[in-house]
Structure formats: structure tokens, C-alpha cells
Amino acid sequence: MNVLKLVGKLFLVFLLSVLGIVFFVSLLFPLYPVHRSLMPVIVGQNTAFVLAAFLVWAWLEKKPLDELGFAEPSPFRSFLRGAGWGSFGIAVPFVLLLTTGWLRVDGFHFSSSTVTDFTSALSGFLIVALGEEILVRGYIQTLMVRQWGRMIGIITASLLFCALHLGNPNLSWLALFNLFLAGVMLGTAKEAFGGLWTPIGFHFAWNLCQETLSLPVSGLHLIEHPVLITRETGPVWVTGGGFGLEAGAAVTVLLISLTAAFWLQNRNRTKSDHFHTSGLTR
């Protein structure tokens, strides 16, 4: 595949995504109340991402959708594994900031509104995880890895993942760097575990846990009435401030550590595959 053809495919998938976003958001916006105005954007945007990736893959690559990262034998198990890692990834900096006094718990709140908000956030973050992972790690990373290999493929897809968040509020240079690291970590997880379900589970739990703890998720909030009411009191470069933990140095260290763990898993998997292949060809 030459570079011009690759650029053309990327342009097409982004063009279809933009057109799909305009169509679906316009269609869904009147169906949601004003206080949930983020939901039609989330649902519309990520529906467009999924459809654009599937359409361009089927049309231009003419290959089964399984090759995007859906060929895993136990998808639910892989999703739960990713969700476990994602929950752990938020629990570590949360507890760390809590023990240092740089994050405080001001109280608890529970009502019917809390349940409604949580249900809405749960569905919203699942849609986000599916949309962004299928487009970025599924379609874009798969193309890039086939063209240039795993390292360049993951890095390029991660840069485009950053670009998807350029319009988010309270964005900082550290937030952008951490988004890039998150992209590398999720891309490495895809290669390490052989599919999309682990990064989808991680992405979903990572976002949902932050929102449940009343922390901003990439500068956004889906829950008006969180169970836990928290307040950041430490330096912004550590806590992330209005963008959330993803803009803090505590998460930088965590993302690098997780990437290293997944990279080792990927290396072990590659060695295992090579061993079995060599055994079969003897």
C-alpha cells in the first residue's frame, strides 16, 4: 500500500465520520432534554465513527470485520480484563492523591437522580469506548501497522487519537501528552492481547470510574449528581485540574508503567506464537 493510498483512506474515513456526526447529532439532539445535551453528541459522534470504520474497511479492504480486532475467542473475558485494568488505573492515582491530601472527599449523595445519571453515563461511556477504539485502534492502527509495523503504527494512531480531543475544555500540554501516552498504552494492549475487547473494556472503565468519583473525564462531565463528591486541592500539574486526572503527572507515570506491562505481554505473546509456528514447520 503506497502512502498516497493510505492518506486517501484516512481522509475518507474522517470525511465519512464528520458527515455522520452532523447527520446523527442533528437527528438525536431534539430527542434529549437540555440538561443532557452532551449525550446526542456522544451517541452521534461514536455511531459515526463505527459506521465510517466498518464501511471503509468493507469497501476498500474487502476483508471480514473480524480482522479489525474482533477475532478473539473470549470477547467478554477480554472486556472484563480490560475493565479491571482500567479500574485499577484510576484507583491508583485516586488513592495516592487522597492520601497526600491533594484530593478531598466532601460527601456522598444518593437519590433517584444519581441512579438515572449513572445509567446514562454507563451507556455513554460504553458508546465512547466502542466508537473511539473501533475507529482508532481498529481501523487506523490496523492500517498503519500493516504499512509501517507495530511501533510506527501505534504511535501514528495515538497522535490521531490526540487530535480527536483537541476541542475538549481545559486542555493543556500535559493533557495532550497523557492522551498520546493513553493511545500508545491502548494500542499496545490491542497488539498484546490480539484484539479490541481489552482496550474497549479499559477505555470504558477508565472513563466511568473517573465520572463516578465526580472527576472530570477529559474536561467533561456526564453525571450531575455523583455518588461521591470530591474536590481537588493539590497542584494542577499533579491532579489535572479541570481536565481531570488525565492532565496530571500522577497519571503520566501510571500510563508509562501500564504500557511497559502490556509491551512485555506483547513480547511474550510474539515469542509464544513464533515458538508454536516453528514447532509446526519442523
Write a concise keyword list for the protein shown above.
protease; two-stranded antiparallel ribbon; transmembrane helix; 282 residues; 9 helices; globular; mainly alpha
In short:
This protein is mainly alpha-helical and 282 residues long. It is built from 9 helices and 2 strands, in the order H-H-H-E-H-H-H-H-E-H-H.
Any overview of this molecule?
The chain is mainly α and 282 residues long. It has one domain (71-274). It is 71% helix and 4% strand. The longest helix has 37 residues, at 112-148. It starts with a helix and ends with a helix.
Secondary structure layout plus pairing:
Layout: H1 3-28, H2 38-61, H3 75-100, E1 103-108, H4 112-148, H5 150-163, H6 173-193, H7 197-212, E2 228-232, H8 236-239, H9 249-281
Antiparallel strand pairs: 1-2
Helix pairs in contact: 1-2, 2-4, 3-7, 3-9, 4-5, 4-7, 5-6, 6-7, 6-9
Percent range of helical residues = over 70%
Largest sheet: 2 strands, antiparallel
How many distinct folded domains? 1
As a whole number of angstroms, the C-alpha radius of gyration is 19 Å
Structural class from helices and strands?
mainly alpha
Task: Give the strand content.
Answer: under 5%
| Inertia-based shape | globular
Which H/E pattern describes the elements?
HHHEHHHHEHH
Determine the N-to-C terminus distance: 32 Å
Average pLDDT level: 91
How many helical elements?
9
